Target: Multiple-sugar transport system permease YteP
Amino acid sequence: MKADTAETSLDISPSAKRIRPGWKQHLMDWDLYLLLAPGLFYFLIFKYLPMWGIIIAFQDYSPFQGILNSDWVGFKHFIRLFQYDKFWEIFRNTILISLYNLIFFFPAPIVIALLLNEVRRSWFKRSVQTIIYLPHFISWVVVAGITYLLLGTQGGIVNEVIKASGGEALSFLTTPDWFRSLLVSQSIWKEAGWGTIIFLAALSGVDTQLYEAAIVDGAGRWRQLWHITLPAIRSTIFILLILRLGNILDVGFEHIFLMLNSTVTSVGDVFETYVYREGLIGGKFSYTTAVGLFKSFIGLILVVGANWLTKKFGEEGVF
Model:
């Protein structure tokens, strides 16, 4: 009898359950939605509404006729882009600069974060972090100016030292072979320190008991790094890599524009500089919109493909 009574008391009929309607639950969380609203409005106004403008890539857009009244031309501008005699040169330059950044710049914040994670003196660690964060707040105009002061042929500090040592001045800024390496070096100096923030945050979440257990098992620093630290931040690395691949055709207009000159155009002319010349200076709005849409399509393919591969490796993708 007692068992039956217990079962009866634990039995909850569906009518006894009061399920709160969905809209009432949302009203209970109004403060959370209020916090979310600024971000939603930002993406709606500055990201999604401007997407309406991509329609002009399929038109002969005229500012006087507007989007709705401009003539529809279909894929005319895309065909023109692919038939452009320097299309493959621009495409190659963009891809190569992105690959340089992917191979040399992308791992730099990871390596720096791993090194900082091994520092045990907090005051020294904080000092180094402050120093390497500072270049991020310097504009590319200043970075380009510093580069010209250091590497310029006339009066450049590095060339002055070379000439004082009996050597001949080197044309760092006007030699095509130096251009891509120079761009990547500038990016590493300016942004690598700032990029460590995400990885240091991921490293801070690693359970210290794992290291203690590894020490008991006789694992040294390298073993701990390989078997504990890197697996702990592997998902973060994959996610950032996917996002990076999505912007593989975006190599930074301001950076390249400031460093570009007539002698390195063959290796430095990219889609951003081409769009600047054709769109802003030449007024070919529909054509350059088609170029931007082509870049976005390539980025979408790479993101979807990289996300699929990431899941194949057992990691969580972006979506």
About this structure: The chain is about 70% helix and 0% strand.
